[in-house]
Amino acid sequence: MAGGDEASNIAAGIGLPALGGAFGLAVIGVGIIIPLALFSIIKLREPVKETSTTAGQTTCSTWGNAPAGFQTAITTSANKVGIQPALLGAIFLDEHGNNWARPNADGTWARGGRAVGPYQIEDFDNKWKTVTEDGYSSKVYCAPSTTAPAGKTCVNVESIEDSSLAAADFIKHILTGAKLPPTTADKNEVRCTGAGYNAGPAKCTTWKNAGYPEDSQPHTTDEYHNRTWVNFQKLFVGCQSSAAQAGTAPDSGNVCGVTAVDKSKITIAGSPDARLMPPAAKNFNELADEYAKDTGNKLVISSMYRTHHKQICLCMTNDTAEQAACMARDESSITSTDYLKANGKCKNTNANPPGASMHEAGLAFDINIKSFTEAQWNVLKTIAPNFNFNISKTSKGVFKNAEAWHFDYIGLENQYWYGAPKISNAITSANKTCN
Q: Among 392, 315, 327, 320, which Cα is nearest to 354's?
């Protein structure tokens, strides 16, 4: 069931937060500035298989959603410096809530304290000085309201081209300082780089020298380093860097219709509709494989996709017999007073109202937690984010707490998340039939 976690996310997820920055501050609302270390943004994960390639390979499915010219600017800068374009692109996405953000109408970007430009770079003047010392550009940094010396051109801190070069060179120095290969595609090395960009190069070097212990990962803004790996994977494989550069965001209707997961990989508890949206189904099958590999057991699943009718009945009652009786009724005969309290919440406090559940969107699954030992549950909780699933926040990461059985798919958070209209778009898409 998806109840408490869904409700808390609806409250928290109506709007995406403002920009974060490298060593910077974040601005939320008007005139409110908080330290970056306290700034939290929604995570986005879309794992793919770990692989290796050379700088310059990108994926059209994700790069294609970037504003026109961004893929070229990022790839050109990364290749000039000698790092993976996917790594530079991942940092951009990290800085913008995992979105392909766009500048303001006047070409400027929102600022977080001293963090400026598309990559929210702090101390841009010093970082650009390093760019010129490394021989990557002849442009010079000009203080605000000043002009370039004779024969020189000022760097534009707001442009995607110049900012990409500054960020790429900074990333190269993080990798060099930690003695990591500049074209790395290694999970730990990519995460290490994200930590260095977000919290200072020493964070990467220290963690790397300690052998990348999972139980003492570097402290970064909302797991910035882990998000770097997820976004890196999105940009790293797929098709070639000549992919079309669409200037529009993904349409919520471009993925439609739930599809069956591989039932041979799981054990069914009860009678769930074992379907999810296609990206979620693919990642779920991979998660099930990894769980079986790590524990020797199959995942025991009690719920996945729910129809509107099913969500109504779950909202009405927690009693399985009463739910069955509800399902036997014609849906048109059921009124909202049958399942909602006067305050608009479900009579079954463990559920969300119809139209507000990730299960209806085919983007969540529940395990039969009674079938799991705490050790098995800990394995699932640990590996799930690697396949784009997050355990319910309501559980607070504690075995058998409320909602410890519920996992949301967050690989499409850019498109589908709690709060109108995104959750309704997701549910509409889940119930479409593709031609």
A: 315
Dump the DSSP string for 224-288.
HHHHHHHHHHHHHSSS-TT-----SPPPTTSS-S-EE--GGGEEE-S--B-EE-HHHHHHHHHHH
Q: Kind of pairing, strands 364-367 and 406-409?
A: antiparallel
pLDDT digits (tens, 9 = 90+) for 195-225: 999 999 999 999 999 999 998 999 988 889 9
CA nearest 133: which of 142, 125, 121?
Answer: 125
Q: Which CATH number fits domain 14-236: 1.10.530.10, 3.90.180.10, 3.30.70.20, 3.40.50.10090?
A: 1.10.530.10
Q: In whole angstroms, give the CA distance from residue 368 to residue 44.
A: 26
**Mean pLDDT of the 73-87 span:** 87
CATH of domain 4-9+253-430: 3.30.1380.10
Domain boundaries, the chain: 4-9+253-430, 14-236
| Angle subtended at Cα 103 by Cα 99 and Cα 109, rounded to the nearest 5 degrees | 100
pLDDT for 422 equals 62
Q: How far apart are CA 290 and CA 298, in angstroms?
A: 10
Distance CA 248, CA 65 (A): 6
pLDDT in tens, 146-190: 888 888 899 999 999 999 999 999 999 999 999 998 888 888 999
- Are 366 and 3 in contact by the 8 Å Cβ rule? The answer is no
Enter the tokens of residue 428. 């509409």
CA distance 115 to 389: 31
